[in-house]
Amino acid sequence: MTSALPPGLEGNLVEYVRGGEGDWLPFDQKRFYTNAFVIQGDKILLGWKKRGFGVNKYNGFGGKVELGETPAEAAMRELKEEAGIVAPLEHAGSLLFMTKGAGWAFQIEIFSARSYSGIPIETDEMRPEWFSFAPPASGVFDTNESVMPIPYEKMWDDDVYWLPLLVQGRKFVGRADFVMEGDEFKMARHWFGTIKSDH
Ligand SMILES: Nc1ncnc2c1[nH]c(=O)n2[C@H]1C[C@H](O)[C@@H](COP(=O)(O)OP(=O)(O)OP(=O)(O)O)O1
Fold first, then answer.
1. Where do the Nudix hydrolase domain residues begin and end (predicted)?
2. Looking at this predicted complex, what is its ipTM?
């Protein structure tokens, strides 16, 4: 399926999913962030964010790209700082993330690795925890499972659209615009695509 790309996205992209309504939010600059995920077999390491932006959500490990760093270097640094581990991260996708009223966009480069060294540790910012992305043998997860399924209901609203692609090793690009509802960020509009050579 093809459609006009949202402002800020470019490339040879094939639409994967889109939704929501209203105009795309305007922005005049991008700020650069990273987000990193480690996969082991059918499990993925997420962190419970203990403070700051996105507090009380599960997410990958990441933050701002500092001056003089590449996104890959920043992703390695943040993974070590926030989870205490080192991994051979590879670029997995790119996300443009807007919040109403900010005027600037988060450009988030997303990385993944299928091995790591070290032992994940809780830090001031994140509490690491493994989750399963494989369906349970019985077809239904019960609360006695030792590893629970990915807790999308406790993550950013957009993650459910692209995390399955990351797990499958398919490169993705997308945009998600958020508005505040009370003290919660709610996704108002989204578009995700895969890169054409990926098909
Ligand atoms: N919508 C969405 N989905 C998935 N991930 C994210 C979003 N929005 C986001 O901001 N993020 C990610 C991108 C980053 O990994 C973090 C936000 O970074 P944060 O920890 O706030 O960055 P800093 O304040 O710079 O923190 P440090 O650099 O000090 O770690 O969430």
1. 29-172
2. 0.91
